Amino acid sequence: MQNRNSKVDGSTSASLVQNPMLSAALSVRDANYLIAAFMGYEDFKQTGAVIKDASMKFVLCYDIAWSELMPVVEKIEAIKTNEWQSYGDFYVTIQQCSCRIHKLHNQPVAEANGYNKIEAVFEAVTKFIQYFNANNAAVLGSR
């Protein structure tokens, strides 16, 4: 198994390619870009594994850094499709080396198992963002 730190270079994670829940196979680099866009970094230039914003330059490391990935999990849990709700529409469960993201009172909309906990969460978050972009972005964008 390759060192997880080396995957920021754009090499493809085997678990991301082989999982049938993904609509398209994403490299770790592309998954990091997807997450960055979801987190609001829309005005960036993609130059290898580095994105550049007007005020900062940093390496995308959602796949290896809990300090970067957990704010994404918190944003997912805070998503509300109705403004009157006091809680979010989704919740995340992390157990051992698996992660599931559920819509309230429904089956998981994204799930993943990994070699370690952060890999499972990274993959589930990536799947969730693909699901969310395909199904809910128009609802939230109309407000």
Descriptive notes:
By secondary structure, the chain is α+β, with helices and mostly antiparallel strands. It has one domain: Bacillus phage protein-like (Bacillus phage protein, 2-Layer Sandwich). The protein is 37% helix and 19% strand. The chain has 5 helices and 6 strands. It has a 3-stranded antiparallel beta sheet with strand order 1-2-3, with no helix packed on it. Strands 4-5-6 form a 3-stranded antiparallel beta sheet, covered by helices on one side. A hairpin with a 2-residue loop joins strand 4 and strand 5. Helix 2 crosses helix 4 and helix 3 (66-78) runs parallel beside helix 4 (117-135). It is globular.
Summarize this entry quickly.
This protein is an alpha+beta fold and 143 residues long. The protein has 5 helices and 6 strands, in the order ααβββαβββαα.
